[in-house]
Amino acid sequence: MTTTDPSVGTDTAGGSAPFVKSVVELDRVVIRLAGDSGDGMQLTGNRFTSETASFGNDLSTLPNFPAEIRAPTGTLPGVSSFQLHFADHDIMTPGDAPDVLVAMNPAALKANLSDLPGGGLLIVDADEFTPRNLAKVGYATNPLEDDSLDGWQLVSVPLTSMTLDALADSGLGKKEAERSKNMFTLGLLSWMYHRPTEGTVRFLERQFRRKPEIAAANIAAFRAGYNYGETTEAFAVSYEIKPALMAPGRYRNISGNQALSLGLVAAGQRSGLPVFLGAYPITPASDILHELSRHKSFGVRTFQAEDEIAGIGAALGASFGGALGVTTTSGPGVSLKSETIGLAVMTELPLVIVDVQRGGPSTGLPTKTEQSDLLQAMFGRNGEAPLPVIAPRSPADCFDAALEAARIALTYRTPVVLLSDGYLANGAEPWQIPDVEDLPDLRVQFATEPNGATPDGTPEFLPYLRDPETLARPWAVPGTAGMQHRIGGLEKADKTGNISYDPANHDLMTRLRQAKVDGIAASIGPTDVDDPVGPDGRTASVAVIGWGSTYGPIGAACRRIRRSGRSVAQIHLRHLNPFPADLGEVLRRYDRVVCPEMNLGQLSMLLRAKYLVDVQSHTQVRGLPFRAAELAAAVQDVIDSTSGAPLAADPAGGAE
Amino acid sequence: MTTIELGMPAEGPIADAIARSLETQGEKQTTLKAKDLKTDQEVRWCPGCGDYVILNAVQSFLPSLGIAREDMVIVSGIGCSSRFPYYMNTYGVHSIHGRAPAIATGLAASRPDLSVWVVTGDGDALSIGGNHLIHTLRRNVNLTILLFNNRIYGLTKGQYSPTSEVGKVTKSTPMGSLDHPFNPVSLAIGADATFVGRAMDSDRKGLTDVLRQAAEHQGTALVEIYQNCNIFNDGAFDLLKDPTTGVQWSIPLVHGKPLVFGPDGASCVVRDESGGLRVAETAQVDADDIVVHDATREDPSYAFALSRLSSQDLRYTPMGVFRAVQKPTYDRMMADQVEEARTSSPADLTGLLAGSDTWTVGA
């Protein structure tokens, strides 16, 4: 931290003498906004994120909210928070712990204070620390006054009353005006971190275009917060985080669910096929339904079904008709869809099944993240029902993962499970906008001519005569003359697709379906291994392997470990089934393999079973992403126990 | 003879494939014979099953619609009746127990240029698939649903079904079943179905007549077909099939005609005091009080009241078309929304990916 360029604050309040405000340059900061579910913390966080993205910082976000829409006001279960990590360099996680905590009421303080390291900046809305609100969360005395917060830099600001003062002439009632306190807070933070403000003003005008008085009030509160920061003596310092060095190109900020939706639209455009989404609302996947329903001009049809089963059923029916059928859900929905997924395996039709994983089992933790549906995706069906499984590694990567899911589904005529999760779905990061021409070509060839002949020589269509390379069956859509055929869930005779109970045929077909999925490995390239040569000129003897949203925390942990002078390899899997063809060989290169997962060891079970490699599982299921420091410490222990010569540096310290 | 006009598929790979197939196959064949609809698959229902009669009736009548084989899709669930698609030389999906309406909805909603049929049974449609059935009916997707009702589970060998009468003794109910049954017609009208009819497997003329009206209907049409299972529930509909008792207990529904039935027209249907309908002796009422059948009445309560004249033992069973009203179809409205969106904002993928807030990092 270096102090540079002191500037003079402009004093518009009049009276007091101008005072000097200094600007401190930081390389990164983690801010957590916490308030009641009704306080608009998610909106505030998203706006601050947009300002930060357009400023050019790298960033990563972690929204964290309760399953209840509005738990009783001011209580601990009602606390909603939004954490944003932004930096002048590329970062991989939303940050282990905040540097700054904004608490809009006593409940938000109580729920989040233990995460704020000693000395951290703590901004609270003093107006909300009333005896009633304090009593609701069990504070016997007011923490703002009893010295219990001495270990932090406490700045107690009357956010609510200043918002009301700023809106005194707005014509709004007290209750309505109070709602703008989140915009006042956003204004203050925007000043503190030198964020551009035009985007937020434009957003508020757009958002409330039918209620101009509300738009005006929010903009007034936002500006008042900004000006307050500029003039008050409560904040003597503001901070500058320079734009991050990023690859040249055009960028936008994007969440995982948004990226996934755009990837599906792009897959429709690149294949030329209409996209048909059959879905039933479920947290945290519903935003994909919302987003796709806005893109009808791309020929996207969205069908909100009566239940999860009808959602996937309709999608499969549309696939039979030649559409790119898609269904989106979370774990409980996959449970309901499993019979139809089995039908898709049997009928060998393209289908994309998106599972935005959440805490389970049963209803579990609907708004929290977990990656515990991997084995369900792999095996959660009756019979031998293999299907490809892929996972995105970051919010923006959901775009590419959606295209890859569509590629596999269309090329191999198979259902594909795409495993996103709650953290990817709601988290956001900058995304370099790709050129449409660079996206994969997903065009398909529908069958239009007979591909066989009956014993008497009459040409006939054999719906299960496979492509010798991909083992995919031909896709003939209704309306195509002469290609009439019947498919279904009963076992198919090889080539003809007629019902067959023949023992040898069932054995053959079971193996063919497996071979088709295994064969996808030929199209996916080698394992992605990050194993830089260390300072001692050696590559690592310990590898960390992961999948899905743990990419960020594992990557950040590996950076810490490498900074401590140790070597470590990071392997991250996009394809969970089939694995890349060289994966077994890659794993055997390392003395030890550690597999961190937000479940009880599902990938490590698959790896151990398939490759007989002694994978060491490191797991947690807290509904939250891993903390990089904790992961680094765990991996460091493995490295040191392997090398026998522990190094002194502590990888748990320092930044990403 | 009416022919049904199907639209064209939207431009794109699907339309291209269809056009290519016609280059080699010649023009669409819309003049078919019953044998054109048969497949090389051996029909595997029990000898004497009512399903054979229905299959023959459907194969004989379908050509009169003037639809090419490749434009017809038959989707079924699980059960004896659901083997139907294998015996029809059209496109077909033999799907999962109860889910045929859902699968057919996705197909019909994305391809309004097809004639989509659902073949289902009383267990398939009303038990495991009850939810899909009612929602499909209320949405009014352009589908024709043939519900084969034999009032028993046949494929699982003889358990009672959701249309079995109370007290039915079966393998799973040795002391008699306790469930009150569904009346499928009442259920469909309750779900605001736009077309509901009922026919008997052995009545070729009546069945064909109802099927034709159902096929011509724009929207979801449900036809309940009483079908005899000669193995597990033989004679279930004998009361209505027997020439003597049949006349006595069946009420033929003819649009625009008074509801008079029974030997010599001795019985009729009149309004009862509580607003419903009841059966009366024709000689005892004013001719003006006899209800004239109107299947096009918007308010479903009349058709519902008609369906409630029946008791579990089939005494008074209206046969024919209960209700046939016009409402916008789901697939058409969905296609219209897509068209409207395309007109107001043409697809621009580059613009969509960029969104409204971007920034540029220079080289």
From TrEMBL, chain A:
PANTHER family: 2-OXOGLUTARATE OXIDOREDUCTASE SUBUNIT KORA, PYRUVATE-FLAVODOXIN OXIDOREDUCTASE-RELATED
Record-linked InterPro entries: 2-oxoacid/accept_OxRdtase_asu, PFOR_II, Pyruvate:ferred/Flavod_OxRd, Pyrv/ketoisovalerate_OxRed_cat, Pyrv_Fd/Flavodoxin_OxRdtase_N, Pyrv_flavodox_OxRed_cen, THDP-binding, Transketo_C/PFOR_II
Domain Pyruvate flavodoxin/ferredoxin oxidoreductase pyrimidine binding, first and last residues per copy: 274-496
Pfam (any one): PFOR_II
The organism of origin for this protein: Geodermatophilus pulveris
Residue ranges of domain Pyruvate/ketoisovalerate oxidoreductase catalytic in the record: 38-227
Keywords linked to the UniProt accession: Oxidoreductase
Molecular function per GO: magnesium ion binding; oxidoreductase activity, acting on the aldehyde or oxo group of donors
Pyruvate:ferredoxin oxidoreductase core domain segment(s): 540-605
Protein name: 2-oxoglutarate ferredoxin oxidoreductase subunit alpha
GO BP of this protein: response to oxidative stress
SUPFAM superfamilies: Pyruvate-ferredoxin oxidoreductase, PFOR, domain III, Thiamin diphosphate-binding fold (THDP-binding), TK C-terminal domain-like
Record has Electron transport as a keyword: no
Automatic annotation (TrEMBL), chain B:
Magnesium listed as a keyword: no
Protein origin, superkingdom: Bacteria
UniProt-listed GO biological process terms: cellular respiration
Keywords: Oxidoreductase
InterPro entries with a match to the protein in the record: 2-oxoacid:Fd_oxidoreductase, THDP-binding, TPP_enzyme_TPP-bd
Recorded GO MF terms: magnesium ion binding; oxidoreductase activity, acting on the aldehyde or oxo group of donors, iron-sulfur protein as acceptor; thiamine pyrophosphate binding
Classification via SUPFAM superfamilies: Thiamin diphosphate-binding fold (THDP-binding) (SSF52518)
Domain Thiamine pyrophosphate enzyme TPP-binding: 78-225
Keyword Cytoplasm: no
PANTHER family: 2-OXOGLUTARATE OXIDOREDUCTASE SUBUNIT KORB, 2-OXOGLUTARATE OXIDOREDUCTASE SUBUNIT KORB-RELATED
Name used for this protein in its record: 2-oxoglutarate ferredoxin oxidoreductase subunit beta
